[in-house]
Design brief:
Blueprint (H helix, E strand, L loop, with lengths): L14 H9 L6 H14 L2 H9 L2 H9 L8 H18 L8 H20 L9 H7 L2 H4 L8 H11 L3 H12 L28 H23 L3 H11 L8 H8 L3 H22 L1
Helix pairs in contact: 2-3, 4-5, 4-6, 5-6, 9-10, 10-14, 11-14, 12-14, 13-14
């Protein structure tokens, strides 16, 4: 089975070395591709599957490079894309008259999409089909980094076939993610980033320190909520602190008797206020 294949690894995070290795594998002709695919299908030939996968690893690298804007490591994106490639090789039918690369692109992108969705944020950023469409298109369709005006929102909503409120909501979710997993600088010994807590071993002193930091953040979060006005606190609680069925901008707009854009503005200011208090505490 293709899941038992041994592929080149990205040693020490060296993407350049991995790419050089992958580029040494020859590109198969259509005749070679069909012959190997038939061997895999009819004889369960693992060596044939191995050759098919290796010859298409460069395709995964190219596709994964297009998703670097989501803040996830290139190596992880490639690894997930390779899983999609192996699934494609396993399901490829050489009699359909389609090249493997054309068939595999869907599987590669599907695995990368799922990986991004799982890791973009602990709170699910996109759960419906429309939200997924927005998630993977809004960034490239925006004209700049500033908040979109109503005209831009309406144009994007029309092009993607979604509601304007959904465009505004997805833009807000994007703007809320500004904490890097990795330290911003390797030379900054005082960097406090999530990756610093992901160690292989268990250090009791580190565990204690992490609990102290977590307790402090929790206390400051409660303090920051108390410093918000009633409307702002209600919006934050409804949007972010519910265990399930978080409210949408449109729902809150109807409840509060204001526009969805106004709810978004109030939410953004409240989040910034909370972030300032918690950051100072840490």
């Amino acid at each position: 089975m293709t899941t038992n294949l041994v592929l080149p690894t990205i040693v020490g995070g060296s993407i350049e070395g991995y790419i050089q290795t992958v580029n040494r594998f020859p590109i198969l002709s259509q005749e070679e591709e069909i012959r190997l695919a038939r061997c895999l299908r009819d004889e369960d030939d693992i060596k044939a599957a191995h050759q098919l996968v290796l010859s298409h690893l460069r395709v995964v690298i190219a596709i994964a490079r297009g998703y670097l804007g989501y803040g996830l490591p290139h190596a992880d994106l490639i690894q997930e894309g390779n899983i999609g490639l192996m699934k494609a090789v396993k399901r490829f039918d050489p009699e359909r008259g389609v090249r493997l690369v054309s068939f595999a692109i869907h599987w590669i992108k599907a695995e990368i999409h799922e990986f991004i969705m799982r890791n973009w944020r602990l709170v699910k950023i996109a759960t419906t089909k429309q939200q997924r469409k927005l998630f993977f298109n809004l960034r490239s369709m925006k004209q700049g980094l500033d908040t979109m005006n109503q005209g831009e929102v309406a144009a994007i909503a029309k092009q993607l076939g979604v509601k304007s409120e959904e465009v505004i909501e997805m833009e807000t979710r994007f703007s809320g993610r500004d904490i890097s997993l990795e330290p911003l600088s390797d030379e900054d010994d005082e960097s406090c980033s999530p990756i610093s807590y992901l160690t292989d071993g268990v250090d009791p002193s580190q565990v204690f320190e992490n609990k102290q930091i977590s307790r402090l953040c929790h206390e400051k979060l409660k303090e920051s909520l108390l410093n918000l006005d009633d409307r702002s606190r209600h919006i934050i609680e409804a949007r972010w602190l519910r265990e399930k069925d978080a409210a949408t901008l449109h729902e809150l707009a109807e409840e509060l008797g204001v526009s969805a854009e106004r709810v978004r503005q109030i939410e953004a200011k409240a989040i910034q206020k909370i972030r300032n208090i918690v950051t100072v505490a840490i």
